Amino acid sequence: MKIFVNEKQLELENGITAYEVRDNIKKNADIVILNGFPIEKDYILREGDKLALIKKGEAPTKEELEFLLFSRHTPKVHEKVKKASVGIAGLGGLGSNVAISLARIGIGKLVLVDFDVVEPSNLNRQQYLIKHLGMNKTEAIKETISEINPFIEVETKNEYIKEDNVLQIFKEVDIIVEAFDNAESKAVLVNTVLSKEKNKFVVAASGMAGYFSNNIIKTKKINERFYLIGDETYEAKVGCGLMAPRVAIAANHQANTVLRIIMDEKEV
């Protein structure tokens, strides 16, 4: 009889129970989940059942986590994702959300760049907690990523990106996510990278303020190496602030565009 334990297929004898599998494989598991539901009494397993054995607070090994991602993403996807290197310029509402999404898919390497610290006003839309107040954003988001997937390579740079350092900062990445707050910095990064680099992709964003329709946030392919996400209309200003739902929608457009580029799906 074939069943799955923590997403790994095993051949077991007919009539075996969930608790017997737990006792043989992970006796210290606090929680047994059968086909997506926690159980409080034993069950006889059937062909194709899926068990998850969880010890509260225990981190999986690199091999276990790799297998779980592998099984969820399919081999083709995960093999490419874990080899990819992505830079994120700015770790505010866009960048912090992009970083978390890419961490959750098991990206190989992240280069995170920001010169700012976490302030109370950031908590309305950025991936930070009260315990992070006063910390460099680079270190705060790195800490969060380590609690999601400690095996991702994370390089942090507390720098202000300018025309004369942007190429050096991102020299080792394949794709750059532009996630700045101001138009001038956006233009400097996009124009410098696209004019002086021949192989790097840039995924930028513009227009995600307020609580306007979800559906006017679009992903556009501007040229072969430049993608722009947003509604291109509603910028942050007095009376039209940045709020978590719409910012996160734009950020995940960016993250998914990064994934599509990695997977050689370069059309929007």
UniProtKB/TrEMBL annotation:
Pfam families per the UniProt record, alphabetical: ThiF (PF00899), ThiS-like (PF14453)
Keyword Cell membrane: no
The ThiS-like ubiquitin domain, residue ranges: 1-57
An annotated Gene Ontology molecular function: nucleotidyltransferase activity
Keywords attached to this entry: Nucleotidyltransferase, Transferase
InterPro entries assigned to the protein according to its UniProt record, in alphabetical order: Mopterin_synth/thiamin_S_b, ThiF/MoeB/HesA, ThiF_fam2, ThiF_NAD_FAD-bd, ThiS-like_dom, Ubiquitin-activating_enz
Name of the molecule in the record: Sulfur carrier protein ThiS adenylyltransferase ThiF
Organism the protein comes from: Clostridium brassicae
Gene: thiF
